[in-house]
Amino acid sequence: MEVNQNAQEKMTERFDSFDEEHRALEEKANHFVEKIEELTKEEAASEKRLSQLREKLAKVNEKHATLSSEGMEKERHLQQLQATVRSLKQVSEDYAGYYQGVREVLKHKSELPGVVNSVAELIRVDEKLTTAIDIALGATSQHIVVTDEKAAAKAITYLKTNRLGRATFLPLSIIKEKQVPDTVLTKRKKSTDLLVTQVN
Predict the structure, then answer these.
(1) Is 28 in contact with 36 (CB distance < 8 Å)?
(2) Where in 39-161 does DSSP place strands (E)?
(3) For residues 173 and 149, is the Cβ–Cβ distance under 8 A?
(4) Crossing angle between the packed helical segments 100-107 and 2-94, to the nearest 10 degrees
(5) What value, to the nearest 5°, has the Cα angle with vertex 91 and ends 86 and 94?
(6) Residue 179 half-sphere exposure, CB side, CA atoms within 13 Å?
(7) Tens digit of pLDDT for each residue in 129-153?
(8) What pLDDT shows up at residue 112?
(9) Cβ neighbours of 98 (radius 10 Å)
(10) pLDDT at position 64 over 70
(11) What is the percent of the chain with per-residue pLDDT over 70, rounded to a whole number?
(12) How many other C-beta atoms lie within 10 A of the C-beta of residue 31?
């Protein structure tokens, strides 16, 4: 009987020990479950953050591509403008479109003291009237304005000596201002108004 009681006590002790171990293991398991849940939440938050960063990166890449494309377009446009400016500068320096004699005098005006410029280069008019003025002036637009008759004579000698053609010179020293009577101005004003109205 005593042996049974001892055995029972030992069994009770072992059950108590198992209970303690079971509780400890259960606590550990609960702790691990909590940790796993915490890590799962952190992973979900990280995934969300990563997704947001990928989205942001895609937008940045798209913006970069757009800006790069716009930059290339602007660069092409700038190159075209520079080419146009170079071309116009070349035309201006070479006086393309002028008669040979006029062109040669204007190209060498730094060597010909007293040469001012061509009438076309000296006249500034409203852009809307450019065509009308060009037609009205005709060949006169290529006449060369010089300071005086000596400058004209030197330029003529230069053309003859080098067989570079002919040109018409307008010495400022002999050009006289003409006064237009008021009656003519009034008539011209009406005609000009009519002309401008028809041109517009």
Answers:
(1) no
(2) 115-118, 144-146
(3) yes
(4) 110
(5) 120
(6) 2
(7) 888 888 888 888 889 999 999 999 9
(8) 92
(9) 20
(10) yes
(11) 80
(12) 10
Q: Is the distance from CB of 160 to CB of 135 less than 8 angstroms?
A: no
Using an 8 Å Cβ cutoff, are 128 and 64 in contact? no
Token duo for residue 150 = 């000596």
In tens, the pLDDT along 34-45 reads: 888 888 888 888
- The two structure tokens encoding residue 77: 């446009």
Cα separation, 96 vs 93, in Å, equals 8
Instruction: List beta partners, residue 118.
Output: 144
Tokens representing 95?
């006086």
* Distance separating alpha carbons of residues 123 and 141, to the nearest angstrom: 9
pLDDT of 15 higher than 90: no
How many beta carbons lie within 10 A of that of residue 165, not counting itself? 14
Span between the terminal Cα atoms of the chain, in Å: 134
- Residue 128 has what pLDDT? 86
